[in-house]
Specification:
By secondary structure, the chain is an alpha/beta fold. The protein has one domain (8-279): NADP-dependent oxidoreductase domain (TIM Barrel, Alpha-Beta Barrel). Helix content is 39%, strand content 13%. It contains eleven helices and nine strands. The protein has helices at 4-7, 44-56, 72-81, 106-120, 139-151, 165-174, 192-201, 222-230, 234-245, 258-266, 274-279, and strands at residues 15-18, 22-25, 29-30, 61-63, 89-94, 125-130, 155-161, 179-181, 204-205. The strands form two sheets. The protein has a seven-stranded parallel β-sheet, with helices on one face. The chain has a two-stranded antiparallel ribbon with strand order 1-2. Strand 7, helix 6 and strand 8 (179-181) form a beta-alpha-beta unit. Helix 2 (44-56) packs parallel to helix 10. The longest helix has 15 residues, at 106-120.
């Protein structure tokens, strides 16, 4: 049987080993929009088809969260893909309460992790991420609870989301951190210092909203100019720019459209030249 990678080499950008062990293609899929963020999916069958097509195209990193739906994104993933293909990594998150407020109480983090295990039909979550640090709970308690879950075998690798360089440093003193998920895209590079820290420490950097909620797809600036020259779309150039920005970057664009999914995956085939990167305002891509 032909594997997705053999059928279509859609990941010319290479792979990254999460935690130094878990190898994934660098362009993943963000599942926040599967249920429309809040509430049940309008078309669960279409959501399932989208997930299966992503895997067929070679995507082997799917990022979701307990808060998406809430709970519905995880359920849709399990319904569509379980039993999971070998090598597929389902990353999820917990620690976000009602109204998207951080809830880092140890009992809440344990409940989120264990309920995600049930919904995703997993014995171990390969990558479990703290959705937000809760400023009302000592970080030692939050990361201590996560470390216990890891030691119990319920989590393999730990990630954090929306952290500063100092928060990342403090977190790493309490538990090994394999990934960071911060907002980062061509239009918003405010997390560049965090990215540089991840790069220096071989920590995976998963930019959320890599296409700025789709706004970059309609860009009329440098993205559009480079796209026109390469016969691509501005969104594809934005993703290719991220992939060439650093070898630790793992973009997770989300979409509800099969057409956009295929377009996003094809972005990994693009190779931006030094002239392209200069036009986009980049220096040289980090290796």
């Amino acid at each position: 049987m032909t594997s997705p990678a053999e059928e279509k080499p859609a990941h010319a950008s290479g792979t990254f080993a999460i935690g130094g062990e878990l190898s994934v293609h660098r362009l993943g899929f963000g599942a926040m929009r599967l249920p429309g963020v809040w509430g049940e999916a309008e078309n669960p069958q279409a959501a399932g088809e989208l997930l299966r097509e992503a895997v067929r195209l070679g995507v082997d990193l799917i990022d979701t969260a307990q808060a998406y739906g809430p709970e519905i994104s995880e359920r849709l993933i399990a319904e569509a893909l379980h039993p999971y293909p070998e090598g597929l990594v389902i990353a999820t998150k917990g620690g976000l309460g009602n109204g998207s407020h951080p809830d880092g109480r140890p009992e809440r983090l344990r409940a989120d992790c264990e309920s995600s295990l049930r919904r995703l039909r997993l014995d171990t979550i390969e990558l479990w991420q703290l959705h937000r640090i809760d400023p009302t709970v000592p970080l030692e308690e939050q990361l201590g609870a996560i470390r216990e879950l890891r030691d119990e075998g319920k989590i393999r690798f730990v990630g954090v989301s929306e952290v500063s360089v100092d928060e990342l440093r403090r977190a790493r003193e309490l538990v090994e951190i394999a990934t960071v998920q911060n907002r980062f895209n061509y239009a918003n590079q405010s997390a560049d210092e965090v990215l540089r820290t991840c790069e220096a420490e071989a920590i995976g950097f998963m930019p959320w909203h890599p296409l700025a909620k789709g706004d970059l797809a309609d860009s009329r600036g440098p993205l559009a100019a480079v796209a026109a020259r390469l016969g691509a779309t501005p969104a594809q150039i934005a993703l290719a720019w991220q992939l060439q920005r650093s070898a630790v970057v793992l973009p997770i664009p989300g979409t509800g459209s099969l057409e956009h999914l295929r377009e996003n995956v094809d972005a990994a085939l693009l190779e931006l030249s030094p002239a392209d990167l200069r036009e986009l305002g980049a220096v040289v891509p980090r290796s």
